[in-house]
Amino acid sequence: MQVVSDEARAMYNGGMAGLTYWSPNVNIFRDPRWGRGQETPGEDPVLAGKYAASYVRGLQSATGNRLKVAACCKHYTAYDLDNWNGVDRYHFNARVSKQDLVDTYNVPFKACVVEGKVASVMCSYNQVNGKPTCADPDLLKGTIRGQWHLNGYIVSDCDSVGVMYDTQHFTATPEESAAATIKAGLDLDCGPFLAVHTDLAVRTGLLAEADVDMALANTITVQMRLGMFDGEPSAQPYGNLGPRDVCTPAHKQLALEAARQGIVLLKNSGSSLPLSTSRHRTVAVIGPNSDVTVTMIGNYAGVACGYTSPLQGISRYARTIHQAGCSDVACNANNLFGAAEAAARQADATILVMGLDQSIEAEFRDRAGLLLPGHQQELVSRVARASRGPTVLVLMSGGPIDVSFAKNDPRVRAILWAGYPGQAGGAAIADVLFGTINPGGKLPMTWYPQDYVAKVPMTNMGMRPSGGYPGRTYRFYKGPVVFPFGHGMSYTTFKQSLATAPTELPVLLDTNLYTTKNSTLSSNAIRVKHANCDSLSLVVHIDVENTGNMDGTHTLLVFSTPPAGKWSPNKQLLGFHRVHVVAGSKQPVKINIHACKHLSVVDEFGIRRIPVGEHSLHIGDLKHSISLQANLKGIKT
Q1: How far is residue 485's CA from residue 256's CA, in Å, rounded to a whole number?
Q2: E runs forming strands in 295-435
Q3: Is 251 exposed, middle or buried (0-12, 13-18, 19+ CB in 10 A)?
Q4: Three-state DSSP class for 395?
């Protein structure tokens, strides 16, 4: 993100860009059909929170109160439906329980503000429990400013104040909508609505001038922190950045490295990958995404410095025979399949680059189902049957795809997921295919079977299972999956062992607490705000050994499950660590666990509590128990 902010400042200095970036999108990827899931860090709130805070800190590169760039965490909150089955984001009322709001939907936004110190939060189009988010004082003034202490401005999604009046008919007059949003804590409208209607709202007494002054102060303060009033930009910090700092060799290398790290190896039968340049001299490269460029940068992207398509990347390693197979990802016809099969018959190996693009999943375009579009599946199966050598399926997509057919087809030897890998995506894919790079990526979301979505309307916001409703994400859904959250293979093997870990942790209660034992220890769990959280951290030391014969990077995922009882028994991610381990060697990894943050659960009233008793840590196949017991000496009744 520091590279992005360097280029942002360089563009600003050249009069080509501003300094407020409405990024990152940290919504939870709740439903696999969501067209904008591709913008997010995935389905897990802890992961999304860590991503959010790191992204913001990198982009803003703050020194004291000064900002290099102002980031914006969006779309607050419970926004993850664009246009599905006749319901769109402008009309959608997301009915969300207090438990899910605190436990899932708001977690990344809290991390943005509290840990990332973000300069802005964007409220969303949808309503939450009958109120437009941009007019809800509890969500804006109460939570973002009151509880989390935002130092910055709150902005609407574009035209969402107009949408609130014109589409949702939330108020009888436009002036009432203007007044409601500003009084709720909105500082800036992306769109003309407040500019047109706020004046009359003040003159008719619906809004105090002081409220407008406060909104103005919140926006101008961020401009001041960006140095916009400090005079000649070239004399200011970052004033030396210019065209020579955009698309530098180091920046291009970073784009390649990011693409390499993001590739996930989903299947590798009989160690078919990596391919060998001596044995696989001729490679058939087939599929609608096999020679794409713009597809690789997904949505909300800038202008790329230059592209390497998958075909170009693979051509650096082997002689290629190229056949598109389908004219586009919709793949509405199979008339080109014969030529693709012929190419596969002549080659030492066949790479099928399939998947989606913005015509299938995008803003305001949710998917109807999870299967590959059109005749893509037929193309994969036919080519795999015809192929003389091993067949590898490479998928480009933002959302999960049900590729059970390929997972279960012995002729499809390996499957890679590349996401939308950016400008250097084709080079990165080829580097992984031929073993220059050992893949180490993990899935940030569950890959569900197609029949899952048949049972789950996108409009149901509940995270937990109930009745015939199966629940959502790995934390609550326990049915069959194509590939689970956190799945990702390597060309080598890793062994994890627990070096040291505590077996118990006393939970000290706040000594200034005047309360009854019952309210604090309700249901055998301690309210987080009654615990002395500073004393509740522990360290787990894990050794990661590379037991294979190739250097590799391993991402250690640490999950926890609370004690048995009424708490959800499912595991939740509490931390992760990426470590590079040379073949035959061992690396120590230290994981910090904060009980208030990582071992707590949220009850049905939206109150975060630490269950007392045996908590289990899960690290791969390892399991370790830690006993949390309340130390009641601090309580004064």
Answers
A1: 24
A2: 319-323, 349-355, 391-396, 412-417
A3: middle
A4: strand
- Contact residues for 182 (Cβ-Cβ < 8 A; gap 6+): 194, 198, 201, 207, 211, 212, 215
Contact (Cβ atoms closer than 8 angstroms) between residue 425 and residue 259: yes
Instruction: Please give the Cα distance from 155 to 121 (Å, whole number).
Output: 6
pLDDT of residue 510: 78
Other CB atoms within a 10 A radius of the CB of residue 282 amount to: 15
Residue 492 · residue 551 · CB < 8 Å: yes
> In angstroms, rounded to a whole number, what is the distance separating the alpha carbons of residues 156 and 181?
9
Alpha carbon distance 45, 51 (integer Å): 10
SS3 annotation, 459-495: CCCCCCCECCECCCHHHHCCCCCCECCCCCECCCCEE
Structure tokens at 255: 């784009």
Range 471-507 burial, b when 16+ CB lie within 10 A, else e? bbbbbbbeeebbbebbbbbbbbebeeeeeebeeebeb
Instruction: At 433, list the tokens.
Output: 């295919």
- Residues forming a β-bridge with 545: 495, 586
Q: Based on C-alpha coordinates, what's the Rg of the chain?
A: 26
Instruction: Report how far residue 478's alpha carbon sits from residue 461's, in angstroms, rounded to the nearest whole number.
Output: 17
> Residues 578, 580, 583, 586: is their CA dihedral positive or negative?
negative
Report which residue type is found at 339: A
Question: What's the pLDDT score for residue 600?
Answer: 94
Contact present, 330 and 373 (Cβ < 8 Å)? yes
User: Strand, helix or coil at 351?
Assistant: strand
Both tokens assigned to 181: 């949003």
CB neighbours of residue 368 within 10 Å: 10
Question: Torsions phi, psi of 373, nearest 5?
Answer: -65, 155
The answer on pLDDT for 505 being more than 70 is yes
pLDDT digits (tens, 9 = 90+) for 253-272: 999 999 999 999 999 999 99
Q: Please say whether the beta carbons of 626 and 506 come within 8 A.
A: no
Q: Which residue has the tokens 């992207």?
A: 301
CB 108 within 8 A of CB 45: yes
Which residues are marked as active site?
157
The percentage of residues in the chain with a pLDDT greater than 90, rounded to a whole number, is: 93
**Could you tell me if 343 and 320 are in contact, meaning their C-beta atoms sit under 8 angstroms apart?**
no
For residues 271 and 442, is the Cβ–Cβ distance under 8 A?
no
DSSP assignments along 203-262, one per residue: HTTSS-HHHHHHHHHHHHHHHHHTTTTSS-GGGSTTTT--GGGSS-HHHHHHHHHHHHHH
* Peptide bond connecting 274 to the previous residue in cis, omega within 30 degrees of 0: yes
Indicate the angle between helix axes 2-13 and 45-60, nearest 10 degrees: 40
Asked if the model's pLDDT at residue 86 lies above 50, the reply is yes
CA atoms within 13 A on the CB side of 545: 7
* Residue-level length of the chain: 637
Label the pairing between strands 282-286 and 319-323. Answer: parallel
pLDDT tens sequence across 549-577 = 999 999 999 999 999 887 776 899 999 99
